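Recall the central idea of this unit: under ordinary conditions, the amino acid sequence of a chain determines the structure it adopts. In this exercise we apply that idea directly, starting from the sequence alone.
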Amino acid sequence: MLQGRQFEAAVIGASAGAVSALLEILPGLPPDVPVPVVVVVHMLRGRSSQLADLFASRLDVRVVEAEDKQDVAPGAVYFAPADYHLSVENDATFSLSNEPLHIFSRPAIDFAMQSAADAYGPALVGILLTGASHDGAEGLAAIGAAGGLTVVQDPQQAQSPVMPGAALKLRQPDLILPLKDIRALLAMLKS
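Accordingly, the structure predicted from this sequence is:
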């Protein structure tokens, strides 16, 4: 599935159970990860996100909270900030907005995945992990429709199987994997 494919970015979405799932897969990233890794996690409204700080101390790669108009550059993991939708523009910069909630969420995984699919097309990897809503299913389907590689965490191994299950009902992904294999896949990405 990866043989000979070149990628420009990866987008990961998760909700309930996200931190433990991400702690299992992100430490597999090499310090010089050749693509930007964009992570969108649902969080309680009215709270600031501590995800970038939490993961910066646990990963060998640069970890930052995404900012408006920031370049989406290789060699970093970008976390969506609290209470903003995160999009990737066609010029490979981030855009933040406070549009209405999408499926009770802001940031919404669908926003990030659909915009990244538009920006990167077949050079994008989309990964949907554990979660208790169906946000992310349409975004992952958009990545697949654009020719990108789509990956869903095995729902039987997800802390909350609703989100990966919703993705499976909407469109068959390229891969359905346990977290250990998603970690290995991320470590093999090439630009």
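The chain has one domain: 9-187.
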